[in-house]
Amino acid sequence: MQRALSVTRAQNFPDWYQAIVKEADLAEASPTRGCMIIKAWGYGIWELIQQEMDRRIKATGHDNYYFPLLIPMGFIAKEAEHVDGFAKEMAVVTHHRLKNIDGELKPDPEAELTEPMIIRPTSETIIGDAFSRWITSYRDLPVLLNQWANVMRWEMRTRLFLRTAEFLWQEGHTAHASKDEAMDETFLALELYRAFSEEWLAMPVIAGEKPAHERFPGADNTFSIEAMMQDGKALQAGTSHYLGTHFAEAQDIRFTDKDGERKLAHTTSWGTSTRMIGGVIMTHGDDDGLRTPPTIAPKQIVLIPILRDKPEDEAVIAYAKALGEALRGLTAFGLPVRAHVDLKPGKSADKRWDWVRRGAPLILEIGPRDATNGQVSFMRRDALREGDKLKSHAMARDEFVAQAPALLAEIQRAVFAEAHARLHGNIRTDITSYHDLAAYFGSDEDGGGFKGWVRAPWCRPAGAALDAVVEKLKALKLTIRNAPLDQPATFGPCLFTGQPGVEEILIARAY
Amino acid sequence: MQRALSVTRAQNFPDWYQAIVKEADLAEASPTRGCMIIKAWGYGIWELIQQEMDRRIKATGHDNYYFPLLIPMGFIAKEAEHVDGFAKEMAVVTHHRLKNIDGELKPDPEAELTEPMIIRPTSETIIGDAFSRWITSYRDLPVLLNQWANVMRWEMRTRLFLRTAEFLWQEGHTAHASKDEAMDETFLALELYRAFSEEWLAMPVIAGEKPAHERFPGADNTFSIEAMMQDGKALQAGTSHYLGTHFAEAQDIRFTDKDGERKLAHTTSWGTSTRMIGGVIMTHGDDDGLRTPPTIAPKQIVLIPILRDKPEDEAVIAYAKALGEALRGLTAFGLPVRAHVDLKPGKSADKRWDWVRRGAPLILEIGPRDATNGQVSFMRRDALREGDKLKSHAMARDEFVAQAPALLAEIQRAVFAEAHARLHGNIRTDITSYHDLAAYFGSDEDGGGFKGWVRAPWCRPAGAALDAVVEKLKALKLTIRNAPLDQPATFGPCLFTGQPGVEEILIARAY
Fold first, then answer.
1. Chain A residues touching residue B64 (CB < 8 angstroms)
2. What is the C-alpha separation between B202 and B301, in angstroms, rounded?
């Protein structure tokens, strides 16, 4: 069977991922090592993610700010764990001028910075510094802010959207008078991410706490949402951190409390990024391209007039334009329907496949007969084929207009339901020993076959005992994703040691 | 008379500017040299600027993309004029890791980049490189794209919003098959900026062409919009460039035309930035703070309940909340009205002055009597005072709700009309010689008093003759802003040489 992408998921999942990113006009590699160019369809998806995420962040009382891209090196050094965690992968600015030296452009030796600066890998330190100036009294708390920005981490092995040197994200940063309030905020952000991922990206996730060795550098607790990709691997799609008073101590964020005492503020930070688009691709893509959830599809309904350089073309174009106009007057997911009439030069069959690959949720091909009979023929991108063939639906024009918002909502539900069944149908809870774990995952070490996740109790070891567990998992290319928030009342024995379990964790291969 | 800001415009205009930026919660300096922290009210204004600018850019057929922050040094070197124009002020990344060396954090000598990278000062070169890969045939043209991004130019003397090392902007980049099409695009962007500035920022401008020595490095023609600040100085608020085939030659952007010939594409670029916020401040600010045009006010109507820790507080809060809700259900400028009930702890008088300084267009103080009588008392921020006193208007509650969108529109018109009168009433056309020019501007060389602009014919000299003119103007701290698009049929003699004039130019002091 001919598919719209050059590689199928079954043939080679990583190659399929590369193919869809390229062929669906999402992004491409750039001449800047490790950095990507986000193209029109990919950036359009990002804008719709931003718009709704921003709405939810503001609705929970956070204001947007903007802080500098460059951070003086000394700031990074202040929080010891933080610098260990990030120092290995920063872009360092050392000069502020280029100069033509003997015919070659070079950093001007006379323009070397007294103190090098780093491009923000994250902004705790520069924002903490502002907090220390802004916060003097309990009346100044809480401070609730968010930033949309680009950040940079010098990654050696990159994959578009999933791991790039530069990426786009939002980072929430807050300061509170007490641990309780800060923990409430940490959970508020985590729940915001869970709901957003499921409701807006149609990407079901499991929210939970990261084990100690996977914490954000400088955090007391790190929580994440984890989604299951179509190859069974986990993708961390958002994190929320309770930073305790570590950054407050390092940066002197103190306030005079109601009782007149000077106290350290408790801070949090939380972030989601363009990585989510990678998650959307591997959750909803198929062998014909992306199936973009209608909520984040830059064009939800695409109308392709079938033109034959004949006099009736005019009527077809007029019919398509009027239909597009009528659809744009409707509302779906609280926003005007994004309907687009594709009038670019080119063959209509090529256009159809372009929109199939990009994953426009509803694709209409409009011919002279449709215009004459007042009807439409459309494809649902979520259920494109019947057997080998494309499946086309016919409907009276006015009925289609009346049904369009409901159809989009139905597609959103359908792609979510499919992903929900995949996630919740592929978490094994019957593996109770490392031996069984090795037998399950070890049978296919290079990750070619589908393997879901394992949920099992453990004794939450620390120090050398934890290191030993991490090493054992590493041998199977596995990681602990998180300890889901939703825990049972009692636990079986630890998968690794046989000692009494204290919580259940998710074990999986991961991106 | 007591004013809400610590400095008045008349006392010291530059100090007043600094005071308003700080006291209206717009921005502040950061520990990163030359970079600013944009605070909640300032960033809220920027978001509203972005939203509408983005809508207009998309409505004219441009898609948003995102390109890398870092540009390989070799790219910058490709276009000779471009490198001369920008090489002096770039942040250069030379290392990708920090290392603890003898107890001190330093760039790791083993992590030096083979080729240094620069933080984009603008993106012609990296986008041009993509164009060269994307464009092969006339069918691929035009390419019409835009990017929202941060950029960096190593400025030595910085002023918040007006000139900072890092700033936020949009940059449009397009490629066309012919000069005519590219010139049409250049003018389309210029007109978009003019209309946006006047209709959305209520900031009247004059659009025209920059003289040769003020062109963008690598451009054939540069056009600008110029606004007049309250001290008479000009502010360039947006530029649009026809780049000819310079970048196409440097980066091999070629296409096969309909006639089968390989041709160079013609490119354009155009940009506006957070600098516009500086323009808004100096156009609409007064001695009580900013008067934010309603179109870009993050809160258009602010309701301040006057609370006295008494039982009737509850009714006041309920009344304010219901009123806020009713106002948010209305539409102004095509968007839901942004009404905000300020329930933060604190004295209502302090809150009133905070909102006066920020410039919320309508400020309501709501007391128990208002709640009982079903009325409101409001201040219009555009006409805050009558003599020395604050001017308060009373209105029945339902009438206020009915009138609110019209009141916002009226305020928008009023601040525009005031700025329009200032610009068009302060362009002198009666100065016909350098001697007169020197007499007018030379009488107050340090720029303390208000001096408007001069519009006069010139002979558009080139080379050494142009240099001489530039030097003469520099002695008076003057610059040529642009040659307005709107030119008369005939010209008087050149202001500088007495030779026949060929166009009229605007001469002014400038930011």
1. 40, 43-44, 47
2. 18
Which residues of chain A are modeled with pLDDT < 70? 1, 80, 86-87, 443-448
Query: Nearest CA to CA, how far is A93 from chain B (Å)?
Result: 4
Which CATH number is B301-407 given?
3.40.50.800
Give the gap in angstroms from C-alpha B95 to the nearest C-alpha of chain A: 5
Which pLDDT value is given to residue B336?
Answer: 97
Question: Could you tell me which chain B residue has the CA closest to the CA of A35?
Answer: B68
Chain B: closest CA distance from residue A510 (Å): 26
The minimal CB distance from A95 to the residues B65, B94, B130 is found for B94
Verify whether the Cβ–Cβ distance A150 to B69 is below 8 Å: yes
Q: How confident is the model at residue B416 (pLDDT cuts 50, 70, 90)?
A: very high
Q: Where in chain A is the domain with CATH 3.30.930.10?
A: 13-284
Given CATH 3.90.330.10, say whether it is the number of domain A294-411: no
Q: Quick count: other Cβ atoms within 10 Å of Cβ A335? A: 12
Separation in Å, CA B75 to CA A36, B72, B128? 16, 6, 10
DSSP state of B286: B
User: What is B13-284's CATH topology?
Assistant: BirA Bifunctional Protein; domain 2 (3.30.930)
pTM of the model: 0.96
CATH superfamily of the B427-508 domain: C-terminal domain of ProRS (3.30.110.30)
Q: Among residues A175, A109, A108, A110, which one has the least CA distance to residue A139? A: A175
On whether ipTM exceeds 0.90, the answer is: yes
- State the span(s) of chain A assigned CATH 3.30.110.30: 427-508
Cβ contact B493:B502 at 8 Å: no
- CA dist A62 and B237 (Å) reads 30
